[in-house]
């Protein structure tokens, strides 16, 4: 296609500027990130600054997830005070999960427009505010509304930690290590919530679970007041503002530019992938099932231990140490398996680079842990066995669950180019959150209707059906990725077409780019 002289001139200027590392560091024409040598690049920060920013994001996630699960320790208190059934009281646990469901959809766009820090420093106070509303509630309807809104407005905290870690720590070739640490950080508050909550509820009542959550949120917020911005595009925008320069010219954000584009990336494409892309379908189903069972534990474990082994609420909380140990073990073994499998498969590849499917090894092994643990728990949660038996079964389940999660998400992360990755991760996250919110509402009815042994045996049979999924992806994954319309080939063609269109537009694109500097248009 021919181009006008003006277009040629504009394109040559664009390319000249792109090749200048100093210009790249100040984000001219189409660059999304800071230069690798830029001192403002978070990956070039001193170690203490990296650790501070990472610790703040961890503290924020810990505060929110602690508030999410500590509520379960006080379910009986809510039932007694408001005269609700157990199923209704459990809504207070499920509703914030349903609120968090929306976070992967809208958080990327908030982060693109405002950066990470303003979202962090807004989401946590809003979460704290609705936690306060829960603690002051005089009826269950208020609890339900406040808990849902706490999850809805606090959800970006859980989404952003992934971006923050990616900003700060160089992750090339370390995707499994990266997601192992992220998973551990995200699960820590989830596991500690019932542990501490049991003692708080026993001595102070269910409202104090909210006050303790607020104390933790305030402490985390005070720690985070000075957190530096980590998002490269926002750092570039801040730099321009500080220098009195016009907004930098950035390439369109991966999360979309117009409202329609944003909706396509994190709403329309995830729905399409969930029904058309085999890899995304398989991973979403497996992770959705695993998370549904995991979150059912926060309701079923207290019931089983209290009724079967006469545990106190404090002892039930202590039993959740097994879940914490399982998550830690999963992170360690996933990292070790990733190193071993990379070396093994790399030595057998022609170019020294193994096929991406080697990342599935932890899921292939962890799936057996999920399967075995469910039958173990199902048939040893009985007075004729020692109480430690089902507790150790819980440890095995969390290890297997988290191994599958780390492996599958690491694989999905690298299976597609950036735009396909964002849509795929959004699909998997929303699907498992939806199932995680539903299962606690029905698990008690399942236990009562089928008895505990057969309820968890049913889960075991489903786990057996799911077991081949990572093995099938290991064998057929390269073919599926090659033929996926979200795969590298399809996205490369789309990017080529977009680049061709940009060249043909010449100066018009240069002018329009100024409207894209914030990652969004004025629509």
TrEMBL record:
Domain Major facilitator superfamily (MFS) profile: 51-481
Major site of localization recorded for this protein: membrane
Entry's localization field: Membrane
Residues spanning the membrane: 51-68, 88-107, 119-136, 142-166, 178-202, 208-227, 283-305, 317-340, 360-379, 391-413, 425-448, 454-474
Keyword line: Membrane, Transmembrane, Transmembrane helix
An annotated Gene Ontology molecular function: spermine transmembrane transporter activity
Membrane topology qualifier: Multi-pass membrane protein
Record's GO cellular component terms: plasma membrane
InterPro entries: MFS, MFS_dom, MFS_trans_sf
Name of the molecule in the record: Major facilitator superfamily (MFS) profile domain-containing protein
Classification of source organism: Eukaryota, Fungi, Dikarya, Ascomycota, Pezizomycotina
């Amino acid at each position: 296609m021919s181009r006008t002289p003006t277009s040629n001139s504009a394109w040559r200027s664009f390319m000249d500027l792109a090749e200048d590392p100093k210009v790249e560091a100040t984000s001219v024409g189409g660059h999304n990130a800071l230069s690798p040598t830029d001192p403002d690049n978070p990956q070039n920060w001193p170690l203490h600054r990296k650790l501070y920013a990472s610790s703040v994001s961890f503290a924020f996630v810990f505060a929110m997830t602690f508030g999410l699960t500590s509520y379960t320790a006080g379910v009986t208190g809510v039932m007694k005070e408001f005269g609700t059934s157990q199923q209704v009281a459990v809504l207070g646990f499920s509703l914030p999960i349903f609120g968090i469901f929306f976070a992967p959809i809208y958080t990327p766009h908030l982060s693109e427009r405002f950066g990470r820090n303003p979202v962090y420093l807004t989401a946590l106070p809003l979460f704290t505010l609705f936690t306060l509303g829960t603690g002051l509630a005089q009826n269950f309807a208020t609890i339900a509304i406040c808990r849902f809104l706490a999850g809805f407005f606090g959800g970006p905290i859980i989404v952003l930690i992934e971006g923050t870690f990616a900003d700060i720590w160089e992750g090339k070739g370390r995707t499994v290590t990266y997601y192992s640490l992220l998973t551990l950080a995200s699960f820590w508050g989830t596991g500690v919530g019932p542990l501490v909550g049991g003692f708080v509820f026993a001595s102070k009542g269910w409202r104090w679970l909210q006050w303790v959550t607020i104390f933790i949120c305030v402490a985390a917020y005070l720690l985070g007041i000075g957190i530096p911005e980590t998002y490269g595009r926002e750092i570039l925008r801040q730099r321009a503002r500080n220098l009195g320069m016009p907004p930098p010219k950035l390439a369109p954000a991966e999360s979309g530019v117009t409202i329609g584009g944003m909706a396509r990336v994190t709403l329309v494409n995830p729905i399409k992938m969930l029904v058309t892309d085999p890899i995304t379908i398989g991973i979403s189903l497996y992770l959705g099932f695993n998370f549904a069972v995991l979150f059912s534990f926060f309701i079923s474990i207290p019931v089983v231990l209290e009724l079967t082994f006469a545990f106190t609420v404090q002892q039930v909380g202590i039993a959740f140490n097994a879940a914490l140990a399982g998550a830690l073990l999963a992170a360690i073994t996933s990292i070790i398996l990733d190193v071993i499998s990379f070396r093994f498969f790399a030595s057998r590849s022609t170019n020294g680079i193994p096929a991406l499917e080697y990342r599935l090894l932890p899921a292939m092994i962890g799936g057996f842990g999920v399967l075995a643990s469910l039958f173990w728990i199902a048939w040893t949660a009985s007075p004729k066995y020692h109480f430690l038996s089902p507790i150790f079964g819980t440890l095995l389940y969390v290890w297997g669950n988290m191994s599958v999660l780390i492996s599958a998400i690491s694989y999905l992360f690298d299976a597609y180019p950036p735009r396909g990755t964002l849509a795929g991760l959004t699909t998997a996250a929303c699907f498992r959150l939806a199932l995680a919110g539903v299962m606690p509402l029905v698990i008690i009815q399942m236990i009562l209707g089928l008895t505990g042994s057969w309820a968890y045996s049913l889960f075991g049979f489903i786990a057996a059906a799911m077991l081949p999924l990572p093995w099938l992806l290991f064998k057929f994954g390269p073919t599926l990725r090659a033929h996926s319309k979200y795969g590298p080939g399809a996205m490369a063609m789309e990017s080529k077409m977009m680049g061709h269109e940009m060249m043909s537009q010449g100066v018009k694109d240069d002018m329009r780019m100024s409207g894209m500097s914030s990652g969004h248009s004025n629509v």
